[in-house]
């Protein structure tokens, strides 16, 4: 791991759909020299089908997905890593944090208008823009006692990644 985060830190890049988790997460992992995991790859096929049909997931749907991401986190050991995950609710973050020490949440924080514009321009993703309201409705920002930081989404992916690197635990 290069300078930018404490050794063994697993960074969970969180936020609503369209906030840039995959893009920033990939750039962040590249800069830190650690493995990147895409949360969408952990979804069971039934979850993808449900979201593609415009139906939001409930906690029962999210359980196996969160468990799979938590297993990935637990398997990182002292190697660290970056994983994207909406992690919208505190209880989801608690579940991920319990998987290993050194979990840090990086919330990509943008307005509903900004995110809606990004979703409108995105192609080839199963998550329809119509579910954005349900995501913002479920979003519980990081509490002061949670290890993490919010990074504003103004600017391009490289600028956002630079801001993210600046707030990581050393």
Describe the structure.
- This protein has 170 residues and is of the alpha/beta class.
- Helices cover 42% and strands 14% of the residues.
- It has seven helices and five strands.
- The protein has helices at 21-32, 45-52, 59-74, 90-97, 112-121, 132-138, 157-167; strands at 10-14, 36-37, 81-84, 103-109, 148-152.
- Strands 2-3-1-4-5 form a five-stranded parallel β-sheet, with helices on both faces.
- The model has no long low-confidence stretch (mean pLDDT 87).
Please summarize what this structure is:
The chain has 170 residues and is of the alpha/beta class.
The largest pleated sheet is described as: 5 strands, parallel
> H/E order of the elements?
EHEHHEHEHHEH
Structural category is: alpha/beta
Strand content: 5-15%
Q: Percent of residues in helical segments?
A: 40-55%
Spatial strand sequence of the major β-sheet: 2-3-1-4-5
The termini sit apart by 11 Å
Number of helices: 7
- Could you tell me the mean pLDDT? 87
Low-confidence stretches: none
Shape: globular
**Annotation, overall tally of beta strands:** 5
What Rg is obtained from the alpha carbons, in whole angstroms?
Answer: 15 Å
